[in-house]
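Run folding on both entries below.
>entry_1
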Amino acid sequence: MKEVTLGLVGVGRIGVMHARNIVALNADPERAAVKLKLTDVAEDHARSVAADFGGEFLPSVEALIASGIDGLVIATGTATHPDLIRAGVDAGIPVFCEKPVAVNVAASLPILDYIAEKGGTVQIGHQRRFDDGYLEAKRAYDAGELGWIHSVRAVTCDMTPPPVSFLATSGGLFRDCSVHDFDILRWLTGREIVEVYAKGSNNGDPAIGEVGDVDTALAVVTFDDGTVGTVSASRYNGAGHDVRLELQGSEGSVLVGMDHQMALRSAERGIAFPAGVAHRTFAERFNQAYRSELSAFVEVILGERKNPCTPEDAVAASRVADAAQESLETGVPVKVTV
């Protein structure tokens, strides 16, 4: 039986989720055994997480890498991503990094060059590519079952906003939230978004506006073949965490996210769908997808599959997010630079 040791940097909310999912990979006896090592500047908390999941705590990133890991998982703040990616690449080990590569496209480009120069392997965490619904929508689209697409509608709404302290450095709603929609639209259709026109509003906590963000936004996107779509997002969806994608074609239509836990209810008389309790967080909604992307990372380490989400993919989605943010600020449509 093969064994893979993953080194996790950062055990905040998403880092703890990754730690849990790394350990859960061992539930499949047909896969390689996976060991967990981790580090975080919050040493006491990191030691506690390591103990909870049967992992090993290391006092620094340098010590973690030197301990003999097979892959590096980065779950720290965005500003730290470039240096940690370089550290993993320099060590000659594959890297998994939560999106984005860096705080913006300009800061990401030197990292892309560095990875290419060193021949590194870096998988970026766009987990929707591993969600069953999105995978089925892509299968149907690629098989021609939908005909030609005339309309695309993507929705991402959080139940409650993150702390304002996070929003002050996140780059804005399009960059920290809708970038997932921009990525999945490119991945699913195989087409580039070439123009964005965005509008936004603030009707919730005034502090969100005071740090330069909006709590609700809508972007009209145009693809390179002329197809149009909308990407909407909100931080105040009290009904639950709502993530959906609708593809309407000349021959058929599909809707990702239409299950018994969707955060909507029918206004029609006698309709009981959906009957379940709505998801409350992104971690609930994409629990399986987060596990699958780490399983894929192990396969990348073992040379069993190609990188399913490259840094170039992530930067392409960030270019669209940057254009959306610029349009939001200027009030005019913005071409997506390449």
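>entry_2
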Amino acid sequence: MKNYNFLLTILLGITLVNCEATKKGENSIFTFDNSNYKSQYLSEDALSLGVLNPNSKTVDSIIYYVNDKKVGSEKGLEKLNFELKDQKLGYQYLKALVYFGGENSTATARIELVSNVQPKLLKYKIVNTYPHDTASFTEGLEFHNDTLFESTGQKGDSYFRKYDYKTGKIYKQIDLEPQYFGEGITFVNDKLYQLTWQEKTGFIYDAKTLKLEKKFAYDKDIEGWGMTNDGKYIYQTDKTEKIWRMDPKTQKMIDYINVYSGDSKIKAINELEWINGKIYTNVWTKDAIAVVNPNNGAVEGILDMSGLRKLVKVTPDDVLNGIAYNPKTKTIFVTGKNWDKMFEITVSE
């Protein structure tokens, strides 16, 4: 537990104790029987779904739902055993649709599913150091065809550029209109996708010419932060503990995962990079990178990057942000907002 608390301190700055109690369903006729519910569950646990019948109604049947998905039904007041092994981490919203005497009524409740994985503290080794433009308020970093691309924020000074990371020479730069605050970028299907912060607008460019092809509106009421992709889907963050999965063809959100380190949700996850089947993510204002399982949101590893601050000329506001994986060298490039250096590293246990 001592090591786990240390890792949480790296990610969060403090050690959190989650005391969220199970919320009771509010219903004048039926309520969930949550007398034996815990505040938090693990994926190996099972949940007994059942309702209380304080008014002694004659119950015909009950249909049970978890996160609005039907998971089973029972006759009368029989309980349903539901295994949590395939559920994503985070709150599980329970609903019972109770049929009685030709009528029906609904009971609701909520429990929290947390990670059963204790993250590993990973090590890194600096293999090269390169110059970084101190005027770049870094929001996104990604390699495409062995060339580094970087996107930046700040209204009136947002752009993305392709450049020689060894020398800093700029090959091409695309400036955003002054009303936009640029955020993350990613390449997929021969397109470059870019987010904006609070303008709820995204851009799609031709990957070769960098010509703007389309603007699109977010289909969820969220902010735009970091981006990456697995070759098929785009993953993006929104300042919370969520990582959304988006269909690049339609720009529609399909679903999301919640990022948890043990029993604590990790909020304000930011820049993303897909590396060997895992998502590497900066945690906003923390000198740390979390390695996340994209299937369930569990943090499996943590990189303490605080040592890099000793090597750059920065202020406390110049936070770590920017992760790019170069498949050619199999190394990771990291930097920060307005940092004067970018580091090429390797990671190991």
